[in-house]
Amino acid sequence: MKIAIIGCGNMGMAFANSFIQYNLVKKEDLLLIEKNKERGDILQEQKAGVVVDTISEKISSVNLVILSVKPQDYPSVSEELKQYLRPGQLVLSIMAGIPIKKIQESLSYPLIIRAMPNTPALLGMGMTAFASAPEVGLSDIRLAENLINSTGRAVFLEEESLLDAVTGLSGSGPAYFFYLIKNMIDAGVAMGFDPAMSALLVKQTMLGSYHLMQTSDKSLDELIQAVASKGGTTEAALKTFGEKEVGEGLQKGIFAARDRAVELAK
């Protein structure tokens, strides 16, 4: 297996590091294309793979090309890349907002998979959904799934259009959790805790609640009710959340993220 990654920022290197960690590719078979000299020098020092600063004929020898550049940089990248693609290679895009059809047209190449990861992939705990062009065979879909699973969890979508919803739900999702945690910590500080103590109380509560949710056979509503005794403190908080339409506001925000993803893809 030989892999090229074009664009070696945080997400590109999250994939690279996971591939190396799980022995899915050898460093000598991992081509890292990074045009930023400072970033490239760091990767050279780390001996992260075969580091180069230009797209060249070396691309022609790999099985998989991963596109991990900023969407605004893609037009120039595609002009260079399409010169060196050969039949049978698989192209996996983790760029935001660029549909499979546009990638196919810009590269004059059919075998495209588009994925939407999230930042926990940096820790090998990401959630990535992906879709493929009709021309991509089942074996290549399974190959992509296996590689993506090294960064956390992967799910295959039959409909590419659902990737916009994925962007709003799990792609942007980490920020929603951070937003909730920040506001809980701020509330703790306002009630008299120092920031470190408030952060400890909230983060451990979140961690414990996650594991309880994962191991319990109860529904989320049942878990909420298990904490919210009638006339108690939790019920008072939930009543306020309802009055302020916190849940509705959260859902509207997720839909807004989805809609923005649709706009960016046009």
Task: Tell me about this structure.
This protein is an alpha/beta fold and 266 residues long. Helices cover 52% and strands 14% of the residues. The mean pLDDT is 95. It has eleven helices and eight strands. An eight-stranded mixed beta sheet has the order 3-2-1-4-5-6-7-8, sandwiched between helices. Its EC number is 1.5.1.2. InterPro entries: 6-PGluconate_DH-like_C_sf, NAD(P)-bd_dom_sf, P5C_Rdtase_cat_N, P5CR_dimer, Pyrroline-COOH_reductase. Catalyzes the reduction of 1-pyrroline-5-carboxylate (PCA) to L-proline.
Fill in the keyword field for this structure.
266 residues, alpha/beta, 8-stranded mixed beta sheet, 11 helices, 52% helix, elongated
Describe the structure concisely:
Keywords: Amino-acid biosynthesis, Cytoplasm, NADP, Oxidoreductase, Proline biosynthesis. The chain has helices at 10-21, 37-46, 74-81, 100-107, 138-149, 162-171, 173-190, 195-215, 220-227, 233-243, 246-264; strands at 3-6, 30-33, 50-52, 64-67, 90-93, 112-116, 126-132, 152-156.
